[in-house]
Design goal:
The chain is mostly helical. It has 4 helices and no strands. Helix 1 (13-37) runs antiparallel to helix 2 (59-84). It is flat.
């Protein structure tokens, strides 16, 4: 795994799919675990509710964060592969633009979840 982020070495198609399969199997495993143990999906029905963690920080919320990090890693692998098939590094960076929106939306909604938790505790 040492050459994944080294842009001077190529990432073969075989290794790319190998890493993507590892991400898929791990993601499927924690999603299945969450469905059996917590009876809740890590993939929320509503994207905007995904980042709102207004309850106690428990193992379920930890799994949600791990799942989100795996999504980010998937985007990084995709950008890395674009460089290897001959795209410019700058053009490949454009494939990371969705991450900017995902991360900033996540930060705002996480803060909103904390604010709602504070507001509801002041009311009662």
């Amino acid at each position: 795994m040492e050459n994944i982020f080294d842009l001077n070495k190529g990432l073969s198609r075989r290794k790319y799919w190998y890493y993507q399969c590892i991400l898929f199997v791990f993601g499927l495993g924690i999603e299945t675990f969450s469905m059996f143990v917590y009876k809740k999906s890590l993939i929320e029905n509503n994207y905007l509710k995904y980042f709102v963690i207004n309850g106690p920080f428990d193992f379920y919320n930890f799994l949600r964060i791990v799942f989100f990090i795996m999504i980010i890693i998937g985007f990084l692998f995709q950008a890395r592969r674009f460089v290897d098939i001959g795209w410019s590094k700058f053009v490949a960076l454009l494939s990371l633009l969705p991450l900017v929106g995902i991360i900033t939306t996540g930060i705002c909604l996480f803060k909103k979840g904390k604010d709602n938790k504070t507001d509801s505790s002041q009311v009662s």
